[in-house]
Amino acid sequence: MKTYLVILLAFVQFGTACATGKRFIKPNDEKIIISGAWFLDKSDERVVINRFDKKTLNNKATYMNKLNANTQTGVTISVYTNSEQVTFEFEKRSDAKIRGCSLGVFKDGKLFKEFKLLKDKWDPVVVTNPDGNKWAKWEVVMPPFYGLNFTGIEIDKGSDYKKPPENKKKVYVAIGNSITHGTGQRGSYQSYPFLLAQSKGWQLYNLATGGSKISWPVAKMIKDKKIDVITVLWGYNDWNAGFMDDGRLQANYKKLLELLVKHHPDTKIYCILPTATKREKPRKGNSTIGQVRQAEKAVVEDLQKNGNKNLYLIKGYEISGVNDLKDLVHFSTEGAAGFADRLEKMIE
Q1: pLDDT in tens, 187-216
Q2: What CATH code is assigned to 10-162?
Q3: How many whole angstroms from its chain centre is CA 239?
């Protein structure tokens, strides 16, 4: 039996709405904006939100845990309404990671309320406008490690809703592993890519996946997308798995960047060398994290020499430190905020 995030089940939504004087909005309504994911499977019952397509996830060169990849870090769901009370409805994804974390609801661009999601216990995502029936933009920022399907919105009967007013934003794609995915922070709205995008006024597409290694098929997946800025922070897990010693790290990193610059010649691509870590030795192999940084640096500099003027190098270990960490390698909430702030000053 499927477990639902809110009390209302799909097959009783209509009856419940009538009984409580509420108005139900289907998840595929064109006035609801879902941002931060390109691969949406929409129906009247649910919207399955995918950050990756199946072809990419099934590619043997994609080193990703599918359960982690099927979560929706950084994805937002927005509605503009004069309803005093708004309920966002979800159901668990059976093919995604379920780990205790948080979902954030923003009101007119500012964090309004945080909802904690436990493995088998949660609260309905219900917000009440302190300004009564004044029009407001409500925006759910999806959790980092809790896969959900979106099943609709409930508003007060007699209230109305519109497509949220939005300015055209530059598109920012963040590529990487768990550090970029948001491990170490409760909600994805606390991750460094989200904070960076928020400070710059960019639209975030977070394509990072916890536990992943450098996967060049991601570059092929987004080859036809209009993107203004890309950051790449990958390599730690490759190093831990011994990929540095056998040359796979260098080869995969080079192919990833070659594809990115080929398909996005006018996009600013920032290559962030592995950030601070307390780990001194990898689980496999004999290389050091310093050697990983040097290897990635050499790849970037070689591509720069070939005329790639929009490819930039950022020494992640120089703008992060062990005081930013929650564990061996992941940022704490404060550490992620500090890293985002330092990164913001280096990225145009």
Answers
A1: 999 999 999 999 999 999 999 999 999 999
A2: 2.60.120.260
A3: 23
Q: How far from chain centre, in Å, is Cα 20? A: 35
Let me know if 123 is exposed, middle or buried by CB neighbors in 10 A (0-12, 13-18, 19+). Answer: middle
Residues of the chain with CATH 2.60.120.260: 10-162
Q: Are the C-beta atoms of 124 and 116 separated by less than 8 Å?
A: no
- State pLDDT tens for residues 211-257: 999 999 999 999 999 999 999 999 999 999 999 999 999 999 999 99
At 318, is the secondary structure helix, strand, or coil?
A: helix
Contact 71, 96 (CB under 8 A): yes
pTM of the model: 0.93
**Runs of H (alpha helix) within 170-282:** 178-181, 192-200, 217-221, 236-240, 248-263
**DSSP letter string, 202-220:** PEEEE---TT----THHHH
Sequence ranges of the chain with CATH classification 3.40.50.1110: 171-346
pLDDT in tens, 278-323: 999 999 999 999 999 999 999 999 999 998 999 999 999 999 999 9
Q: Are 221 and 53 in contact (CB under 8 A)?
A: yes
Instruction: Compute CA distances 292 → 21, 26, 201, 296, whole Å.
Output: 60, 48, 32, 6
Which candidate, 342, 121, 344, 310, places its Cα nearest to that of 228? 310
Burial class (CB in 10 A: 0-12, 13-18, 19+), 101: buried
C-alpha radius of gyration, the chain, whole number? 21
- Tokens representing 141 are 């920022």
CATH number of 171-346: 3.40.50.1110
Q: Distance (Å, rounded) from C-alpha 173 to C-alpha 306?
A: 24
- The answer to whether residue 13 scores a pLDDT higher than 90 is no
Mean pLDDT value of segment 4-33 = 65
Cβ contacts of residue 80 below 8 Å, gap of 6+?
A: 31, 135, 136, 137, 138, 161, 162, 163, 164, 165
